[in-house]
Design goal:
The chain is 75% helix and 0% strand. By secondary structure, the protein is mostly helical.
Length: 162
């Protein structure tokens, strides 16, 4: 693939992932008790841990969203977002298999989710996981960013503007 298109697609994917994770993190931070209740519905951790997770996960989501936007931390942000999506997928799939009345809590607490909404959340998380993996693989180092940006503004390989 042409490096300019790789660069543009990577940025588009980074913006999508950052927007989703920053938005989700902020919504969860606004209602930590509701989010703790959502976590408890998955029955994966002792109920006493739900509050700790509800207080620590949203800031991590926000930090991962910011990290994926910064050129020097894009791979760390992508890796973090991919890891979060794997955890979310495990939670959703096990809840679906066990027939639990889970509250996804993805974008704040909304009460027990239907089988269809859980299936849609699984599909969304798979897409976000794929985007994060693509960003991780395509994330450019500072040198490559300079070369790509040089190509965009029309510089030659020696770095002099034509």
């Amino acid at each position: 693939m042409n490096s300019i298109w790789t660069f543009r697609l990577t940025w588009l994917f980074r913006l999508i992932l950052a927007g989703v994770f920053i938005y989700a993190g902020v919504l969860k931070m606004l209602n930590p008790s509701g989010f703790a209740g959502s976590i408890a519905t998955f029955q994966l951790v002792p109920e006493s841990w739900s509050n700790v997770i509800a207080l620590t996960l949203p800031p991590f989501e926000i930090l991962a969203g910011v990290a994926i936007l910064l050129p020097w931390s894009a791979q760390v942000g992508a890796w973090s977002i991919a890891g979060l999506n794997v955890v979310f997928l495990v939670g959703l799939v096990q809840g679906l298999i066990r027939g639990l009345p889970v509250d996804c809590g993805c974008f704040g607490s909304s009460g027990p989710s239907s089988t269809l909404s859980i299936a849609l959340a699984i599909g969304r998380d798979v897409v976000l996981l794929i985007l994060a993996i693509v960003v991780y693989v395509w994330a450019t180092s500072g040198k490559e960013v300079e070369e790509t940006c040089g190509t965009i503004v029309g510089s030659n390989p020696e770095g002099r503007v034509r």
